[in-house]
Amino acid sequence: MSLRHVLTFIALAAACAWPAFAQSPAPVERVETGNRVSENIPAIPPELVERLNRYQNTRGAGFAGWTDDGCLLVSTRFAETSQAHRVCAPMGMREQLTFYPEPVAGIDAAPAAADLDGFVFGKDIGGNEAWQLHWFDLGTREVRLLTDGQSRNQGALFSHDGRRFAYSSTARNGTDTDVWVMDFPSGQARPLVAEGGTWSARDFAPDGTRMLVSRYVSASESHPGEVDLSTGEVELFPVEGGTAAFGDFRYAPDGRSVYYVSDEPVDGRSGEFMTLRHHDPDTGALTVLSGDIPWDVEGFEISDDGRHLAFVTNEDGIARLHVRRLPGHEPVALPELPVGVMGGLGFSPDGNRLALTLNTATSPSDVYVIDLASRGLERWTRSEVGGLDAASFVAPTLVRYPTFDEVDGAARTIPAFYYRPANVPAGTKLPVVINIHGGPEGQALPTFNPTAQFLANELGVAMLVPNVRGSAGYGKTYLSLDNAEKREDSVRDIGALLDWIDRQPELDADRVGVYGGSYGGYMVLASMATYPERIRAGVDIVGISHFGTFLQNTEDYRRDLRRAEYGDERKPEIAQLFERISPLNNADRITAPLFVAQGKNDPRVPYTEAEQIVAATRSNGQPVWYLLFNDEGHGFRKKSNSDHFTAATMLFWQEHLLGE
């Protein structure tokens, strides 16, 4: 039996288990255009496409590495997909280096000390996330495939001399993610850590004899260790308390001690946040570098010359940059940076400059460079905003609304970013879109959002972006509040937000839509089923409709990772929980218009999750809009596909939220 017939059989079997409804199934109007399949989606008016065009032609640039000659590698899009570019001066020309129909990702430049001039990048096919690693030689402009062409490969890591290259791969059995190491000149690779689970390479020792590795279990549990490169013997480090989360993990310049990010207890005292620590195994001394900052450290970088360390803290969704002089950890004065979100830190080969990606609520991502000696700040890229007036962009405010439970005798509050249209006439009540992030261990951040800008400036719609319980960035207790049997509590946080909207005189509680992708898609469906009389319409992108079928059909390498968060469906009590809370089994309560969008090649949330909720909701008489891209995966990375989805979404809001 072919895969297509198996999936059809599964879908039909599931349909037979759904309750019978009084309504007749909604009619389906299906149109296939190239790789796009549309069902019940009206033709998109040219006027709407034209209004959207400038917003859809905004773009950003992200720092990806330094080259030997002092140029920057950046990732940006000038056509359909993001590709690798090189920029050799502040505000200089972007020279495009890769030209693929699929986006490139995971760009990693060869280290400065290596006898190499180039970078590694990853590329998949149609969003299937089976990334293959390639080497791009800047001297010859030749590209060499490094991996097997079939397995999932990521996490490229060079040794300091460039002779060895490590990465994570599912090549051994398709289920476990092992650490592989390659002799880079010859291309000969072998599995180094193959002990089951999900492993990653973190750092090569300066002398090239050892490597730091980590086994990831969940957002709250990782296990760090060290492997001998000659024997493959792994030594896991003891973790105080038995279980803790670990982030970045690297050798100090001395090659003995380590820097790492963790929420592991210190001296028996547990903490809420991921802090930056330095541990010296010879003396046993542990120094917590960010202990005075009650927020998570997102990541850090160490300069090749060993003189500086830079790290970023996430403070209520706002990024703060810190630089310390090594080995004494003295603070380094920095220029004032725009308020926003940072990523992609990287020291120049000589250690004198620090590059970073900066994104703000009113400007797309761009690359900046700090001169550490002079405190100078230079902008190296200026990404386009579609010819729009950036001064008209709306910056969100941070609000906190009370929810159903208490902390220390007071109502727990949920943070949310509020995009409010400007120049609203007095007495106007604004329709609202609630945008729910995925993960669930993700975090909504005040980044540039062209969709939010279009909604605010063109349609007069407010957007609220909450970080419901289970979101990262607010401590490990908050992160765990939605696990397994507590899953519905995050949906109750959306109910509390609906209450808050009802209390705001400028917001229209009768015109509220919900929007979200992946786990956020589940939240859309669950919210629509739980509060059918309070939600006007919903958009579900690559969302989970039944946790049981999701866990059965997600890719093998993801299954145990997701069980750690959602629960193990093999346990009867968890299976019963999934039957009770999954939107598929409550589709009869989804009575508002629904738009479902999906990528056919999604390895995380299989497209069958979308098709079964579409069929179940239509059985209830609802004319669901359904959009499927055969050349996409977990989200839409090709510009033409993303543009069409956004246009269809705006039309959906116009018809079903605004009533136009």
The CATH topology of the domain at 29-55 and 395-656: Rossmann fold
What spatial order of strands do you see in the largest sheet?
1-2-38-37-36-35-33-34-32-31
Radius of gyration: 25 Å
Question: What is the level 1 CATH name of the domain at 29-55 and 395-656?
Answer: Alpha Beta
- Full CATH superfamily name of the domain at 29-55 and 395-656: Alpha/Beta hydrolase fold, catalytic domain
Question: Quick check: average pLDDT?
Answer: 91
Quote the distance from N terminus to C terminus.
Answer: 47 Å
From the helix content, strand content and strand pairing, which structural class follows?
alpha+beta
The major sheet is characterized as: 10 strands, mixed
Summarize the amount of helix as a percent range: 10-25%
The shape is: globular
CATH architecture of the domain at 29-55 and 395-656: 3-Layer(aba) Sandwich
Uncertain residue segments: 1-22
Total helical elements: 11
